[in-house]
Specification:
By secondary structure, the chain is an alpha/beta fold. It folds into 2 domains: about 90 residues, 3-Layer(aba) Sandwich (Rossmann fold); about 130 residues, NAD(P)-binding Rossmann-like Domain (Rossmann fold), CATH 3.40.50.720. It is built from 10 helices and 10 strands. A 5-stranded parallel β-sheet has the order 5-4-6-7-10. Helix 1 runs parallel beside helix 10.
Length: about 290
Amino acid sequence: MADNKIIDGKLIAETIKKEIAAEVANMIDTGVGAPHLAAILVGDDGASLTYVSSKEKACHSVGMLSSVYRLSAKSSEEDILKTIDFLNNDPEIDGFIVQLPLPAHINETKIIQAINHNKDVDGFTLCNIGLMQLGEPCYLPATPFGIHELLKRSNVEIAGKHIVVMGRSNIVGTPVSVMLSRKGIDATVTICHSKTENIKEITRQADILIVAIGQPEFVKADMVKEGAVVIDVGIHRIKDDSEKGYHIVGDVDFKEVYKVASKITPVPGGVGPMTIVSLLHNTLLAAKNNRK
């Protein structure tokens, strides 16, 4: 029997994938062709390899095309910029990402800002960030978009509610706070971070608490208002004596906070599955926009 308190990111992600697959099938049937997502992978970072592989599988599962451009960890900025220029000008590529992190000798900002904003399906270029700030159509960053979809599809009322976001990163905290406060979504948003005083007093005011603070099990039950909705973005491997040698936890002490929350995302299986689905959504959108 399903637990009504749990916001099941896997289940919601599968539903969205089916919707995307139907649209992709229609594009293929009408001769428009399948959307094509590319990734630039620099070096052989284990987590990046795994993530890019999962993106490829997700693309194929909805009928999209997928390409990976692999560059050596010793590649220069110029090498990466040449690959970006090639993809910017390749009409067969609808959208692409540069997998982060990049090697230490590469200026990430310079690389990301070289991406044509019309193909920036990660939503990281200044153009897309600016459009989001203005509430204009754009490619939204994957995790914030995924969080909004989780809330919306779990029938969580957002308009007029007080949302507290813990964390102010450029990938999650800052963009999700902007996105949820825009006209049409209409939440009242407060951001907390490492310099926030009386943090517990603020988090206890939240109708919806979004936690992206990067510290394992930081949020305890006494930091959460009774009946609040809790979205846990964190993911950490904690070493233990099990066969795997580790277990995974989020930024929220799940067992304790579960008792006071009305709804809560698990880790894993909450926000994570939504991030890749959001990338597929943006690629589909890019294919529609770029082929007009």
